[in-house]
Amino acid sequence: EKWFNENYIQDWCLDKDILIKGNREYSPQTCCFVPCEINSLLTKRQNHRGNTPIGVKHCKAKRRFQDCYKASFTKGNEKVYLGSFTTPKKAFQAYKVAKEAWIKEVANKYKDKLEPRVYDALMKYEVEITD
Predict the structure, then answer these.
(1) Is 14 helix (H, G, I), strand (E, B) or coil?
(2) Residues 131 and 73: beta-carbon distance below 8 Å
(3) Bridge partners for 70 per DSSP
(4) 108-131 as b/e, with b when 16 or more CB fall inside 10 Å?
(5) Cα–Cα distance for residue pair 62/26, rounded to 1 Å
(6) Number of H helices, E strands in the chain
(7) Tens of pLDDT, residues 61-70
(8) Spatial separation of the C-alpha atoms in residues 53 and 86, rounded to whole Å
(9) DSSP 18-80
(10) Are 73 and 111 in contact (CB under 8 A)?
(11) Across-strand partners of 56?
(12) How far apart are CA 103 and CA 123, in angstroms?
């Protein structure tokens, strides 16, 4: 509580897993305050995607002879379509490249306001197929 009160930034979000991916512990060593825009960048929305990797949507074959996999991500308030692919792995790879670039872009936007350890973690952040 003392750390929280000393480090609180109005209108920013408390995050527990930017510094240590997958972390579930709230502590001064594992938590940080970030703009809500950054906090929402790393939301996984697992319930919305089903069995496909993050950023990938399965499209059943209609007129084609094979299924396809579409990759997209949200950039700010805009949904960005990255293309259709023959495998979920190829679609995920397109998502991964685009999402990691977007995370770096947003991190640079706030570079002068973020703690160095938070900025570094965002610049090194890797999207995994298991996310």
Answers:
(1) strand
(2) no
(3) 57, 84
(4) eebeeebeeebbebbeebebeeeb
(5) 48
(6) 5, 5
(7) 666 567 799 9
(8) 14
(9) SSSTT----STTT-EEEEHHHHHHT---HHHHTTSPTTEEEE--SSSSS-EEEEEEEETTEEE
(10) no
(11) 71
(12) 7
Q: Name 51's Cβ contacts closer than 8 Å, sequence gap at least 6.
A: 58
The one-letter code for the residue type at 14 is: L
Residue length of the chain = 131
* Residue 42 banded pLDDT, cuts 50, 70, 90: confident
95 CB-side CA count, 13 A: 27
Q: What are phi and psi of 15, to 5 degrees?
A: -125, 140
